[in-house]
Backbone:
């Protein structure tokens, strides 16, 4: 019942763009860079009218691959994505970079994926050089993994700004049909965790 009321309230607020307006007031002067395992972050950049200071946008990476990559993030960012990294897939471009499978879900082809990934990874490198790793926000969810150790591994990572969403039955973030939300849906229902959301940006 609470979940139903929350989603209905959120639908009304979203239609009026109330939360988007509050976000803009609170966050528009902050420089942001978000490393996310799916599309959770894309609407934040669009709402704040900021460039994508991250290559981790418009794509998804499995929870295990993402968590295993994060401790070596800065080395990973210095790897140039090339055509040779792509594997055959009819639906959307997929690349395997240093053992990490990157699903370029919202990209037309490998050429576009390469161009935008390499341009944005350099932006993130520059952001880290100028602002420090403590200014980067890390987000992960286990929509594609049911290993309880994933959250433990993520929580153990020594990042200052991080948030993890667990696939738990009857959680307030779950869709009304009981399914776990994708990245965009998870962002839209941020009213359910808004104080944690805003806390990620504190001090930027």
Residues:
């Amino acid at each position: 019942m609470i979940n139903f009321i929350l989603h209905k309230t959120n639908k009304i607020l979203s239609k009026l763009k109330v939360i988007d307006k509050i976000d803009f007031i609170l966050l528009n002067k902050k420089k942001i860079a978000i490393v996310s395992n799916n599309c959770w972050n894309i609407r934040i950049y669009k709402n704040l009218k900021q460039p994508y200071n991250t290559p981790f946008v418009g794509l998804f990476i499995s929870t295990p691959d993402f968590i295993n990559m994060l401790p070596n993030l800065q080395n990973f960012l210095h790897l140039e994505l090339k055509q040779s990294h792509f594997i055959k897939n009819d639906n959307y471009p997929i690349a395997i970079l240093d053992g990490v499978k990157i699903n370029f879900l919202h990209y037309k082809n490998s050429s576009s994926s390469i161009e935008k990934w390499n341009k944005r990874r350099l932006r993130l490198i520059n952001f880290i050089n100028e602002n420090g790793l403590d200014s980067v926000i890390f987000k992960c969810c286990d929509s594609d993994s049911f290993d309880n150790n994933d959250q433990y591994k993520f929580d153990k990572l020594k990042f200052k700004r991080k948030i993890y969403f667990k696939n738990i039955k009857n959680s307030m973030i779950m869709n009304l049909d009981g399914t776990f939300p994708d990245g965009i849906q998870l962002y839209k229902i941020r009213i359910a965790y808004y104080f944690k959301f805003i806390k990620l940006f504190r001090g930027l």
In short: DSSP finds nine helices and six strands in the chain. Residues 1-200 form one domain. The radius of gyration is 17 Å.
